[in-house]
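To make the argument concrete, we let one protein speak, a sequence paired with a row of structure tokens, as a model reads it:
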Amino acid sequence: MRVAKDPYRVLGIPHGASAAVVVDAYRRLAKEHHPDRNGNSADSTQRFQEIQLAFEDLRSRPAPEGTIEERLARLQAELEPQGPHERGEDPSVTRVNSLIDGLDDLASSLDRL
């Protein structure tokens, strides 16, 4: 099983780069490593295919909603510690307690006999 390469590393761009940066890097690298331009060697063909796959992978990803600052603020809000939750009485505990009370009453009744 082969592990896919990080498309950002293949294209030589930072993670989270804009679509324009992705396209520019793809065009520059595609020109540089195109097999017709560099002779049809196995290395140039393989490198060109890596570049194409990385570009297609990044293009197929949905665009993030909001700016990086907005996304960071949402993540920080999600990670903030939550206060203690209000707990109500659990119905299963109430049922068990009432069963125990009933058994105690039955035991008391049997003891009187």
Observations:
- The chain is about 65% helix and 0% strand.
- The chain has a mean pLDDT of 84.
